[in-house]
Every structure is written in C-alpha cells, then in structure tokens.
Design a protein that fits this description.
Shape: globular
CATH topology of the largest domain: Fructose-1,6-Bisphosphatase, Chain A, domain 1
CATH architecture of the largest domain: 2-Layer Sandwich
Number of strands: 17
Order of helices and strands: HHEEHEEEEHEEEEEHEHEEHEEEH
Radius of gyration: 19 Å
Mean pLDDT: 96
Bound molecules: 1,6-di-O-phosphono-alpha-D-fructofuranose
CATH class of the largest domain: Alpha Beta
Strand order of the largest sheet: 4-3-5-6-7-8-9-10
Number of helices: 8
Largest sheet: 8 strands, mixed
Helix content: 25-40%
Low-confidence stretches: none
C-alpha cells in the first residue's frame, strides 16, 4: 500500500466528518494544484526570466515581485471558475475579487498571500503560499470587504505550501494538521506527516533581532531571558532562527517546536504580519497541531478584523512559551 495522496486524504476526511463538504475538498485540491504550478515556476529561478521586480506596488506599498503577480493570477485562474467561491481576497489586491458573472458562485471565501517571503525570492531562500477558507455569509451573493472580516475561528480550512528543498503542503480542515510532500515525478502530493504535534516546550525562538530597540518590555524581557540561557532564569540555553519567510519558520515550528514572534513594537505598532491571510491561517494550523497563537495578549483566532489588510502582532508555536510571553504582556 503506497502513501496516501491528497485526494485520498480529503475523501477520508469527508467520510469521517460529515461537515466537510465535497466542495471544500475540491477547493483544497485546486489550490494545491495551482501551488504545484507556482512551485515549478519558482524552481526555474532566473532561467524563467521572472525574477526581480514587477515595477509596481501592492496595497501594502511594497514593490511587487514578478512572481508575486504571477502567483496571484495563477491562484485566481485556478479557483474562480469552479463554483466553490463567492469571492476571494489577496495580499496583492486592494479590494476583494468578484467572481466573474459567467461563473457560478459558491459557499466559500478564499483569502491568500500568493507568495509570502517575497524578499527571499531573488536570493533562493524558501518562500511560500498561505491560504484561508471562510464561509460566505448566508444570503450574500456578491461579498464586499465586510463579508471577509470574520474572526479566524470561523475558518473551515487553512493551509500553506513551502517551496523549499522539497515542496510541502500543510493543511487543516479542523481535525488536526497534516503535511504532504510533492512527488515531482508524478506531480502528486503524498501524505508525509499525519497529526502534526508541536512540543509544548522549546529552546528555539524566531524573531527579527534587528528590531530589538523597538520591542516593548515584555518581548525584551522574554528574549533577554532566552539569551541569558543557563546563566539566567530559564536555566537552559536557547537557539535562534529567522528565515524571514513565515511559511519556512512556521514549518520548522510545526516540525520540531519553537516560538515564532513578529510582535507589535515601536516601529510596527500594529505588527507587521497580516491578520486575515497570514496570521489567521497559520494560527488555525498551529492550534490544530497543539500549539498556541496570540497577538501578545489575545488569541489570534478570536480577533475581530476591522480591515482586509490589517496587520497584527504574532506570537505562535510551542504552547508553554506562547503562554509565558503572553503572561509577560499581562503582568
Ligand atoms: P515579504 O513577503 O515582504 O518578504 O515579508 C515576509 C513576511 O511577511 C513574513 O513571511 C516574514 O516572517 C516577515 O515578513 C519577515 O519580515 P522582516 O523582513 O522584517 O524580517
């Protein structure tokens, strides 16, 4: 008996959990298929002539990379036609995207960061795609921005693909988190990690230390204690990693534990990462894997969004470390 494919896993999940609709499984399949095509485009690197800047800016005021634009278009083309969605939203587009009139509308909203870690594209470091699936509010046929502004606990599915040495898809449908590795020879995502479980304790933290002078006191205290290692209150040494691609840092946390932090600070007063299509899907996955995710104070999945591209502070990963950081914020 070979490995379980993504299709088999999704059918098994539908059989085991009646609330998982065939449409949701089909949507996950087409998103995954689109990510295979993105992986192939990225894998060509400079040979495809699509590295570098697209010469435009996105709603965040960030210069769009050629691959940002291409991957955004690929995800829209892959998902708009099938009758699964009533609307979609992307980091790369200011407004939500209305499904063209010639296509049927469906019961989900899809939100994504088509290529996260763009600053790493041109230097051949892992990047990824992050996506989140929300229910379209009842009776809404042409969703507006407000229809996307649902707390993360409403998500029915979430996932990301990390385009690294291997192309790995991580998803949750609300019943655990699992990972699939792309078999490039057959073009199939094969199940390689069932029921991912994050260790509750860790000795590894991830933060962009160049922001240290801007950190608020609870974060300063937490990091200083980690740096003090066994000479300090933690009584053990810590390691640090920072890849600057959330997908890669989060996949490491899922694989061996850790705490990932992009907290609010004096320079990023609302945080840097986006709530709806970065923090929410990642927090759903992390919680399903037994971890925790807060903005330093509040559970991320309970935050009521007020804007499509709003940013949020993020502290996620091994539960006991996230609790410690959150307790420091509350002291
Ligand atoms: P880019 O997509 O602009 O490279 O940002 C990536 C990201 O949103 C997230 O993936 C990283 O964890 C974080 O920003 C890196 O931020 P710094 O560049 O400030 O370290």
């Amino acid at each position: 008996m070979g490995r379980v494919t993504l299709s088999q896993y999704l059918i098994q999940q539908q059989r085991a959990h009646k609330e998982i609709a065939p449409d949701l499984a089909a949507l996950i399949e087409v998103v995954a298929r689109s990510c295979k095509a993105i992986s192939a485009a990225i894998g060509k690197g400079a040979l495809a002539g699509i590295l570098g800047s697209h010469g435009t800016q996105n709603v965040q005021g960030e210069t769009q990379k050629e691959l940002d634009v291409i991957s955004n278009e690929m995800l829209i083309e892959a998902t708009e036609w099938g009758g699964w969605l009533s609307g979609l939203a992307s980091e790369e587009m200011e407004q939500p995207y209305s499904i063209p009139a010639q296509y049927p509308r469906g019961k989900y909203l899809l939100l994504f960061d088509p290529l996260d870690g763009s600053s790493n594209i041109d230097v051949n470091v892992s990047i990824g795609t992050i996506f989140s699936v929300l229910p379209c509010p009842k009776g809404v046929n042409d969703p507006a921005e407000k229809d996307f502004l649902q707390p993360g606990r409403n998500q029915v599915a979430a996932g990301f693909v990390v385009y690294g040495p291997a192309t790995i898809l991580v998803i949750t449908l609300g019943h655990g988190a699992v990972a699939f590795t792309l078999d490039r020879e057959t073009g199939t995502f094969l199940l390689t990690s069932e029921n991912i479980g994050i260790p509750e304790d860790t000795s590894e933290f991830a933060i962009n230390a160049s922001n240290a002078r801007n950190w608020h006191p609870p974060v300063k205290r937490y990091i200083e204690e980690c740096l003090a290692g066994k000479t300090g209150p933690r009584g053990r040494d810590f390691n640090m990693r920072w890849i600057a691609s959330m997908v890669a840092d989060v996949f490491r946390v899922l694989s061996r534990g850790g705490v990932f932090m992009y907290p609010k600070d004096a320079k990023h007063e609302k945080g840097r990462l986006r709530l709806l299509y970065e923090a929410n899907p990642m927090s759903f996955i992390i919680e399903q894997a037994g971890g925790a995710a807060t903005d330093g104070d509040t559970r991320i999945l309970d935050i009521q969004p007020t804007a499509l591209h709003q940013r949020v502070g993020v502290v996620l990963g091994s539960k006991n470390e996230v609790v410690r950081v959150t307790d420091y914020h509350r002291e």
